[in-house]
């Protein structure tokens, strides 16, 4: 016997209309062959008692229910509209059982027509039944009422033995027609210890059994399922992928008669094997509406309204009763019990053959259980995190539908008993959420340099950042319920020119607040989340790239744009309670303003930073040694950026002509945008220790030029020890030395030191060590007014070898080897002996200025001592106002 073509039968939406005709004129058979049919004759296919019963059952069709389309409606959907790959068995279990059982019943009956002793082999090989319609009619108190239509024929050419073929053709020509009585067919599963699938009660059927004749058959049958727990075991094997095929065995005692001759009962037993890929596929479906809302006022929880359009290519007419299911998700482990999320309900549905079905589903979530939101052991995520994370990253998530409750009391109890433990997995196609966050930015940025005593490579040794994190989150139009974000954290990667610069570690939860922004124009609603983060570590991953960024900030004019890619996690309060949504992908661009306009020559040299406008004041010496002077000063700078910084420790070299002559150290200072005044800085002047004899000579020349009023400059350059806990950062900053002019140290002026007619020379912005002089001709002495560059330290001049000049001509010479003090501010020297250059032009000019003043210049070698430190410098001064007295 041929295996029925279910694809053909299921796809036929029209009841076959062929009617068997009489082989001879005046024949009264109820089922006749096509070849002998009278075109105007209509013959019943069933005996009248059964036919009356069928008509009575048809009247109840409007009140019947079925579970088939119910699972199809509630088992999930896709916004894509593509075919669902979920096995047909999972969602149409009752209909499959019913139709398979019915098919076996029909096949056995057809064999029973011919299973007399003489022609049994002929019957088994020649009989052919092709169903043209298999549909569920209704649910009854004990099972399912189904309708079957099909074509039965005998094909002798399929019989292999000639003798059997000839005998069979003769016997069936004589018998002409065979009629069965009402029959019960039991169907079993041999591989499951002969578990009974169900029983089919089939009415009597009459068919033409002559070779080549086709009889169209149409009847209603009643199917009763077997034990539900056994059937659920089979269903679970199918859903778990352990059932590649299924073999069914049918048994029936079939009463037969031909015309007026009763042929007795025949016991028929036959097996049929069905491959999984031969079953019909699940209909396509598309979510046309989704609305997430708050529950009715006064009730806690959230509701969901979903409309699903299901494509119905089947010739099925059903009335599906209202149904409710539980919606569940996976636990932490595959072995854990599923966790309930909420419930879903549908109203009564009317399904018409080959008409698309609109299914309206109402969901409800009262609260979130602790098992759903609690972090799994050995993980940082909860089951809810895993579900939402897979969905938002475009990966397939999975829900489970646990069936079923039937609110309608008229629904048969057996339907609930059969389906109550069936849990159907529903794939939830992922939805990439890359555009969920409109913008990710940082404001009010504050940098923290690391603890100088931290161990390199530890979190304490990383620079840190404090800022206001702003996250603008798109709210889908479907989300119509109150939503408040109260905490936020993120892991952010920072990119420059497409390369990874470093990471921003915001792994600790930070307090946050959110503001809903209503839709305007083409922009939908959004949620602006702000959080003040404190001391989040920055881990530099590419030192060369960081060097490029720093160079652009210091010497560029346009600043830099850094791209931030972050996985943002938020804790939200909703009508169903609070929970965390973790690792939402976000992107943003953070502009960083330049520190100042560069001179365009890149790195590798000393550069002016006019935008910083550094100024040094209140210089004082706090310690000395044989080779060093430790100075303290207040520094004023301008921070042209919008960023502030805290500096616990910063050490930088002081260079002159690329030679290290000292170091400056800043501790515990705070730099804010704009003007920053009186920042305390300590500097150690020690050329010999840092650079040996060469350094000592360079330092001596610099001091000489400085006290002589020359324009001198110093270079500040970072080094590996600039930030001890971050040697790599110091090495990067070392590529960008900064050159600034030595500070102009002014001291109070004494107007009494110069005659009114001369006054002080205009302030030229230079340091003048010798402010004025008084020459005494008779005693051959000179008295000088000195301006100390220090505010609280007394300096000593140990030796003095000086020559005074007038208009380039020597006037006199001073050689003095007794030390004298130079206190802070303005002071006078002792009377110093002068050896006049008598007869020279310079001396004559002094003589002529007796009682008046003149301008002299001087050059001197001066021995200096400050504490334990000693040095010999030269001094060259011009335009010294000198008074000449007797």
Present the secondary structure layout.
Elements: H1 6-11, H2 48-59, H3 68-74, H4 88-91, H5 93-114, H6 120-126, E1 127-139, E2 144-154, H7 162-175, E3 177-180, E4 183-189, E5 195-202, E6 206-208, E7 214-225, H8 228-239, E8 245-258, E9 261-275, E10 285-294, E11 302-310, E12 318-320, E13 323-329, E14 339-346, E15 349-351, E16 357-365, H9 370-373, H10 383-392, E17 397-405, H11 413-419, E18 423-428, E19 437-448, E20 464-474, E21 479-480, E22 484-496, E23 499-517, E24 526-540, H12 543-555, E25 560-574, E26 577-592, E27 615-624, E28 629-639, E29 644-656, E30 659-671, E31 674-685, H13 687-707, E32 713-717, H14 727-733, E33 738-741, E34 770-776, E35 781-787, E36 795-806, E37 809-816, E38 820-822, E39 826-828, E40 832-833, E41 835-836, H15 841-848, E42 853-866, E43 869-885
Parallel strand pairs: 10-21, 19-29, 34-43
Antiparallel strand pairs: 1-2, 2-7, 3-6, 3-8, 4-5, 4-8, 5-7, 8-9, 10-11, 11-16, 12-15, 13-14, 13-17, 14-16, 17-18, 19-20, 20-24, 22-23, 22-25, 23-24, 25-26, 27-28, 28-31, 29-30, 29-32, 30-31, 32-33, 34-35, 35-39, 35-40, 36-37, 36-38, 36-42, 37-41, 42-43
Protein name: Pre-rRNA processing protein
Pfam families: LEA-2_1, LEA-2_4, LEA-2L_5, Tag1_C
Organism: Karstenula rhodostoma CBS 690.94
Written overview of the protein:
Residues 763-874 form the Tag1-like fifth Ig-like domain. Residues 14-30 have a biased composition (Polar residues). With 886 residues, this protein is an alpha+beta fold. The protein folds into five domains: 6-61 and 87-278, no CATH class; 285-428, Sandwich (Immunoglobulin-like); 437-592, no CATH class; 615-741, Immunoglobulin-like (Sandwich), CATH 2.60.40; 751-885. It has 15 helices and 43 strands. The strands form five sheets. Strands 19, 20, 22, 23, 24, 25, 26, 27, 28, 29, 30, 31, 32 and 33 form a 14-stranded mixed beta sheet that branches. Strands 34, 35, 36, 37, 38, 39, 40, 41, 42 and 43 form a ten-stranded mixed beta sheet that branches. A hairpin with a 2-residue loop joins strand 30 (659-671) and strand 31 (674-685). 34% of the residues are buried.
């Amino acid at each position: 016997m041929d295996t029925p073509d279910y694809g053909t039968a299921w796809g036929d939406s029209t009841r076959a209309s062929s009617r068997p005709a009489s082989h001879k004129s005046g024949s009264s058979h109820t089922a006749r062959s096509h070849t002998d049919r009278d075109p105007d004759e209509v013959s019943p296919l069933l005996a009248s008692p059964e036919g009356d019963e069928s008509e009575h059952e048809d009247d109840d069709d409007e009140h019947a229910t079925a579970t088939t389309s119910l699972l199809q409606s509630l088992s999930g959907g896709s916004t894509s509209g593509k075919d669902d790959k979920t096995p047909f068995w999972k969602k149409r279990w009752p209909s499959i059982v019913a139709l398979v059982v019915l098919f076996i019943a029909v096949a056995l009956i057809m064999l029973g027509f011919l299973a007399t002793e003489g022609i049994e082999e002929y019957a088994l090989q020649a009989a052919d039944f092709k169903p043209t319609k298999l549909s569920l009619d209704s649910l009854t108190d004990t099972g399912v009422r189904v309708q079957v239509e099909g074509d039965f024929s005998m094909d002798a050419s399929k019989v292999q033995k000639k003798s059997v073929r000839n005998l069979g053709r003769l016997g069936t020509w004589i018998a002409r027609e065979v009629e069965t009585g009402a029959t019960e067919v039991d169907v079993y599963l041999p591989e499951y210890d002969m578990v009974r699938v169900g029983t089919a009660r089939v009415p009597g059927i009459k068919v033409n059994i002559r070779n080549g004749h086709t009889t169209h058959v149409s009847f209603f049958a009643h199917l009763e399922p077997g034990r539900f727990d056994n059937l659920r075991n089979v269903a679970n094997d199918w859903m778990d992928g352990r059932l590649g095929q299924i073999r069914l065995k049918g048994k029936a005692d079939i009463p037969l008669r031909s015309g007026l001759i009763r042929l007795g009962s025949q016991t028929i037993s036959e097996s049929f094997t069905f491959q999984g890929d031969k079953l019909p596929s699940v209909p396509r479906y598309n979510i046309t509406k989704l609305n997430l809302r708050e529950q009715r006022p006064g009730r806690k929880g959230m509701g969901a309204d979903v409309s699903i359009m299901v494509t119905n290519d089947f010739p099925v007419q059903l009335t599906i009763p209202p149904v409710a299911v539980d919606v569940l998700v996976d636990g932490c482990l595959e072995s854990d019990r599923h966790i309930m999320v909420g419930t879903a309900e549908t109203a009564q549905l009317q399904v018409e053959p080959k008409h698309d079905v609109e299914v309206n589903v109402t969901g409800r979530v009262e609260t979130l259980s602790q098992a759903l939101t609690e972090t799994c052991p050995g993980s940082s995520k909860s089951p809810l995190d895993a579900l939402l994370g897979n969905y938002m990253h475009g990966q397939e998530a999975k829900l489970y539908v646990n069936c079923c409750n039937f609110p309608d009391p008229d629904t048969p109890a057996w339907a609930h008993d059969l389906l109550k433990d069936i849990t159907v997995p529903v794939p939830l196609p992922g939805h990439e959420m890359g555009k969920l966050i409109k913008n990710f930015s940082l404001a009010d940025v504050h940098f923290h340099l690391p603890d100088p005593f931290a161990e390199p490579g530890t979190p304490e040794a990383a620079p840190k950042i404090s800022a206001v994190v702003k996250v603008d989150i798109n709210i889908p139009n479907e989300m119509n319920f109150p939503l408040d974000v109260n905490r936020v954290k993120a892991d952010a990667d920072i990119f420059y020119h497409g390369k990874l610069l470093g990471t921003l570690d915001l792994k600790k939860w930070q307090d946050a607040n959110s503001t809903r922004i209503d839709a305007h124009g083409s922009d939908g609603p959004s949620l602006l989340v702000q959080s003040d983060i404190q001391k989040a570590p920055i881990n530099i991953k590419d030192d060369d790239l960081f060097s490029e960024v720093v160079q652009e900030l210091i010497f560029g004019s346009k600043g830099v744009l850094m791209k931030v890619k972050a996985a943002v996690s938020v804790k939200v309060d909703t009508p169903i309670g609070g929970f965390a949504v973790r690792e939402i992908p976000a992107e943003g661009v953070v502009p960083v303003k330049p520190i100042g306009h560069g001179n365009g020559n890149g790195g590798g040299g000393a550069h002016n930073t006019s935008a910083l406008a550094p100024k040094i004041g209140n210089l004082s010496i706090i310690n000395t040694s044989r080779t060093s002077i430790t100075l303290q000063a207040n520094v004023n700078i301008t921070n042209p950026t919008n960023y502030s910084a805290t500096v616990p420790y910063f050490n930088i070299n002081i260079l002159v002509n690329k030679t290290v002559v000292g170091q400056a150290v800043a501790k515990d200072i705070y730099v804010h945008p704009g003007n920053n005044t009186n920042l305390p800085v300590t500097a150690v002047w020690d050329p010999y220790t840092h650079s040996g004899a060469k350094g000592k000579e360079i330092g001596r020349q610099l001091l000489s030029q400085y006290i002589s009023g020359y324009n001198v400059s110093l270079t500040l350059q970072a080094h590996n020890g600039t930030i001890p806990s971050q040697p790599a950062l110091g090495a990067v900053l070392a590529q960008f030395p900064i050159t600034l002019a030595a500070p102009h140290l002014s001291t109070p002026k004494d107007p009494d030191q110069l005659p009114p007619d001369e006054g002080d020379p205009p302030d030229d912005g230079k340091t003048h060590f010798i402010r004025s002089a008084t020459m005494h001709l008779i005693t051959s002495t000179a008295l000088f007014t000195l301006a100390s560059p220090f505010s609280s330290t007394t300096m000593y001049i140990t030796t003095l070898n000086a020559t005074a000049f007038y208009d380039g001509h020597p006037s006199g010479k001073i050689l003095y080897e007794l030390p004298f003090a130079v206190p802070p501010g303005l002071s006078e020297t002792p009377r110093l002996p002068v050896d006049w250059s008598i007869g020279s032009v310079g001396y004559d000019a002094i003589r002529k200025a007796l009682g008046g003043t003149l301008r002299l210049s001087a050059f001197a070698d001066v021995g200096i001592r400050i504490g334990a430190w000693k040095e010999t410098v030269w001094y060259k001064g011009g335009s010294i106002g000198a008074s000449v007295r007797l």
